[in-house]
Amino acid sequence: MPLQIRQAQLADLEVLGPLFDGYRQFYREPTDLFRARGFLSERLSRHESEILLALDDTGAGLGFIQLYPLFSSVRAVRTYLLNDLFVAATARRQGVGKGLLVAAADHARHLGAASLSLTTAHDNLPAQALYESLGWQRDRQFCEYSLTL
């Protein structure tokens, strides 16, 4: 499948919005295209995230990946949180996810990042296999916690 991956811009909201809405639905959120577009518009216009968009040769959206900038105080470096990765159901198992992950690593390196991090569900074995096939390492040293506010 011909695949183009590029950095998303505000002008891409018509293509990116439905993909992001599909991503939210995957995590059992109700469909809300208005909210999806609004959220992405804020991130892009405020330069709060880096979004890479995968397109086919007709310009149809196949998937996206969203990176949020972070910093490691101990290492004194910039890092990125790979928070969102989504591939449309019709484009799965065709290398889109792998392409997005490779592009994200290249993009983060270009921006001067020292590392990427992500979290995935314990039962998301296909994603874990993909990450590990690309050299991602499972953290065995630290436990992750969260606090809902």
Broad structural category:
alpha+beta
CATH names the topology as Aminopeptidase
Biggest pleated-sheet summary: 5 strands, mixed
Taken in chain order, the helices and strands follow as EHHEEEHEH
- Rg for CA atoms: 15 Å
Q: CATH first level: which class? A: Alpha Beta
Shape verdict? globular
Low-confidence stretches: none
Helical fraction equals 25-40%
Tally of individual domains? 1
Q: Spatial order of the strands in the main sheet? A: 1-2-3-4-5
Determine the N-to-C terminus distance.
43 Å
- Under CATH, the homologous superfamily reads Gcn5-related N-acetyltransferase (GNAT)
**What is the name of the CATH architecture?**
3-Layer(aba) Sandwich
Strand-helix topology:
Layout: E1 4-7, H1 13-26, H2 33-45, E2 50-55, E3 61-72, E4 77-87, H3 96-110, E5 115-117, H4 125-133
